[in-house]
Amino acid sequence: MGDALMMQLVPIDLADPEFLACLATYWYELGGRPSQEWSQRYLARARELEGTARYTFWGVDGGRRVGFAILRTESDWLFPEHTVGYVAEFTILRAFRRKGHGRTLWQSCASHLRSMGCVRVEIDVLPTNGGAMLFWRKQGFALSCHHMLRSI
Questions:
Q1: Which of 66, 91, 106, 144 is the most exposed place for a label (fewest CB within 10 A)?
Q2: Which of 66, 48, 77 is nearest to 10 (CA)?
Q3: pLDDT per position as a tens digit, 38-74
């Protein structure tokens, strides 16, 4: 079970084949694998931002990689002196789910974002992902808006 105090956050090399396989599985679980072009653009942009406004970590508990989190930071649009954290991607690997690892990974991510000066954390959750909605509510998140989009 996850450590009650903290899970270790270990930076991920974005070219790590194990990470790329986990990312592909994560995308598939969310509704299908994106096109190769989209995946390549995603990873290229991620590499540009990594370490400055984007941080990719393995959640490591007891020496085992149990999941990953991708965090972003940016200035608040209205109060630019405030830093806002975003949980861009977050998953626990299937074999480690329902054992407390999600909570401890989130707690470690929150601690990391606080150490970077974040005053608030936001996350987007697909409306069809009821398990994630429940998980994030249990972590103290509240629905603040419905994000809608349309191609034009």
A1: 144
A2: 66
A3: 888 989 999 988 888 899 999 999 999 999 999 999 9
Smallest CA-to-CA distance from 104 within 57, 36, 147, 38 is with 57
DSSP class of 69: E
The DSSP-derived string for 85-110 is EEEEEEEE-GGGTTTTHHHHHHHHHH
Contact 92, 1 (CB under 8 A): no
Domains and CATH numbers, the chain: 8-138 (3.40.630.30)
Task: Report CA torsion sign: 96, 97, 101, 107.
Answer: positive
Residue 30 CB contacts under 8 Å (≥ 6 apart), including other chains:
126, 129
Single out the residue of 145, 80, 90 nearest to residue 117, CA to CA: 80
Amino acid at 85: G
Q: pLDDT below 50 — which residues of the chain? A: 1-3
Question: Looking at this protein, which amino acid is placed at residue 1?
Answer: M
Structure-block tokens of residue 138: 């249990």
